Amino acid sequence: MEWNTAELVALDKAHSWHPFTQMRDWCAPEHEPLMLVGGRGALLRDSEGREYIDGNSSIWTNLHGHNHPRINAALREQIDRVAHTSFLGFSNPPATLLAAELTRLWPPGSLERVFFSDDGSTAVEVAIKLAVQYWQLLGNPDRQLFIAFSAAYHGDTMGASSLGGVAAFHERFSGYHFPVHRVGSMADLEALGSDVVSRAAAVIIEPIIQGVAGVRLWPEGMLAGLRAWCDRHGVLLIADEVMTGFGRTGEMFACQKENVIPDFVALAKGLTGGYLPLAATLIRPRIFDAFLGRYDEFKTFFYGHSYTGNQLSCAAALANLQIFREEQTLACLQPKIRLMTELLDRLRGERHVAEIRQCGFIAGIELRRDGISPFDWREQTGARVCLEARRYGLITRPIGDVIVLMPPYCISEGQLEQAVEALASATRILA
Ligand SMILES: *Cc1c(COP(=O)(O)O)cnc(C)c1O
């Protein structure tokens, strides 16, 4: 297929509004947006026929590569049956089977219920609303305060962004956010007075590693400590595994690294292997049970979206989980994680590389001038380096001056080396 890149770009600049983007810069004549038209494995192709390594797995969603035959086939089979039917008042096989399979990824009896929604933000939104209603149903409506961590990111809808701690994204809307008590560490949490703790509905955390905060790892043992704290104080624990879920940290779920079972788990990004929007909130039985009653007791959870339990998305997610089993994805990933560590080690010699943080197949490369002082944020150093990396065949996005490398698990050893080399070359444009 031949694409008219110039025409497409003109239409895009005239009518599209891109997320997290200063559209004046985007629409400027000198900005040449890539029109991505194809993909295979860890590679993406643009409308001009150029190929790139998908260095951030299309914003942290893709797992097994683009155009995976198993997921493609599952979608073709499903689309010939039906694409979407309502989960409100009806059920369907892909959603039913997927819910059962998701619960089986956790110890028996622990996270037995699945509530589907559409993306990471809504998976968090569902957990928040369930937590609030749970305490109301238990006759403890004063427990309505949420505890969240500094620099946390839980999504952009009003509810999920209430929990977020990245000032640049959320501060403007602070007047519209519900009350959140913010802590920076376990020490902060331990120091909270009973006035706060007794009003706490739930704590929410990105387990093991914060993504949007700049790829930052929590101290070892912190998550297990948090679970113990929640148990001691009768506070619910929400694990936002939207980024970490489905193998990103080297385990199926980050919580497994510290043998923690949360009360809610939010899943999205990788759930469909990076194919379609779908999210799931996993829930403990005791929370589910609190919502059971006669219709006129009004214990029902009144929440849902038009596309809840979408059949195509659920079929993709089932195929995603099947690939984990068939291809032994987690086992095959371990040597690649070690290779990534070795390759990233080479970057330590680069002049402006200050720190390299890695957890599983997630890496953040922090740039500072001569490795010491932060660049002026106005210089958009991270963005410039990522733009330069394109010339070496790598697509990724920075978080400030932290370059994220988070490729699909199917990336070959050669491609991984090429990706790291591209980053090394790209940092050399910095004076
Ligand atoms: C991406 C992300 C979200 C939001 O997910 P969307 O699908 O973008 O709404 C929430 N939490 C974490 C940890 C994320 O990385």
Q: What does this entry look like structurally?
A:
Helix 14 runs parallel beside helix 16 and helix 15 crosses helix 16 (413-427). With 431 residues, this protein is an alpha/beta fold. Strand 1 (36-40) and strand 2 form a beta hairpin. The strands form four sheets. The chain has a seven-stranded mixed sheet, sandwiched between helices. A four-stranded mixed sheet has the order 1-2-3-15. Strands 13-14-17-16 form a four-stranded antiparallel sheet. The chain contains 16 helices and 17 strands. The model has no long low-confidence stretch (mean pLDDT 97). 37% of the residues lie in helices and 17% in strands. The protein has helices at 5-15, 23-27, 57-60, 69-81, 93-104, 120-137, 158-162, 167-170, 186-190, 194-197, 222-233, 285-290, 311-326, 329-347, 381-391, 413-427, and strands spanning 36-40, 43-46, 51-54, 113-117, 145-149, 180-183, 200-205, 209-210, 216-217, 236-240, 264-267, 279-283, 353-359, 362-367, 394-395, 398-399, 402-405.
Which class best fits the helix and strand makeup? alpha/beta
Q: What is the rounded distance between the termini?
A: 41 Å
Low-confidence segments: none
Ligand names: pyridoxal-5'-phosphate
Largest sheet: 7 strands, mixed
The residue-averaged pLDDT reads 97
Question: What topology, given as strand order, has the largest sheet?
Answer: 4-12-11-10-7-5-6
Mass-distribution shape:
globular
> Roughly how many Å is the radius of gyration?
22 Å
Indicate the proportion of strand residues. 15-25%
Helix percentage range = 25-40%
Count of alpha and pi helical runs: 16
Quantity of strands, as a count: 17
